[in-house]
Amino acid sequence: MIGVRLLEQNQIFLVGRLTHDPEVRYTQKGSAMCRFSIAVNRRYKDSATGEWKDDTSFIPVVVWREVAERCKEKLSKGSPVHVEGRLKSREYDDPKTGSKRTILEVEARRVQFLALAKPADAQAPADRPETAAPSGKKAAGAPAAPSGERSTPSASGDGGPLAAEDGGPAAADDMEEVPF
Fold first, then answer.
1. What total number of domains does the chain contain?
2. What is the DSSP string of the chain?
3. Domain range holding 74?
4. Domain contains 3
5. Residue % of the chain over a pLDDT of 70
6. Is residue 113 scored above 50 in pLDDT?
7. pLDDT at 45 over 50
8. Domain holding 63: CATH number?
9. Is residue 93 part of a domain?
10. How far is CA 132 from the centre of its chain?
């Protein structure tokens, strides 16, 4: 059918644990970029044997700017996280073979830390969520968690999408300059 517009949708929501410590690098323009991978499990019952089995996927994640620096401070191998973002593919030259490779990764716009903060960072009262705005300041008006529940800190700030002042998570020229 000609003239039919399809809804363009590219959203992903994942919950998993970091497989290694986050790595932060900086572009030539000074933008922080953090890379980590998360392990996402799916538990299912094998119909042939009746045994429960795990199917694990390892998913690369990229985070930019202030949120990238916050992830480096707060996360480590094994940390549970909730990641919201979009799928993005990129090409790079494999130094070992010299051929072009394509990778599919999640470009995160929000990362929520699902574990309590490290002891040195536990400065916020237990009844208020730890929320950081992109400028690094606490967001005004952050709602308090119901009594008896712990809130989970978010790297993106006010719970909304993270957008840089120049209009997006990363400028195209920034992405070209980071080799890993």
1. 1
2. -TTPPPP----EEEEEEESS--EEEE-TT--EEEEEEEEEEEEEE-TTT--EEEEEEEEEEEEEHHHHHHHHHH--TT-EEEEEEEEEEEEEE-TTT--EEEEEEEEEEEEEE-SPPPGGG--S-TTS--BB-TTSSBPTTPPPPPTT-----BSSSSSS----TTSSS--HHHHHH---
3. 12-177
4. no
5. 64
6. yes
7. yes
8. 2.40.50.140
9. yes
10. 15
- Nearest 5°: phi and psi at 46? -70, 120
Residue 103 has pLDDT above 80, yes or no: yes
Q: Which residue has tokens 């969520």? A: 129
- Whether 4 is in a domain gets the answer no
Identify the weakest region by mean pLDDT among 5-19, 88-102, 164-178.
164-178
User: Could you give the maximum distance between any two Cα atoms of the chain, in Å?
Assistant: 60
Residue 53 lies in a domain: yes
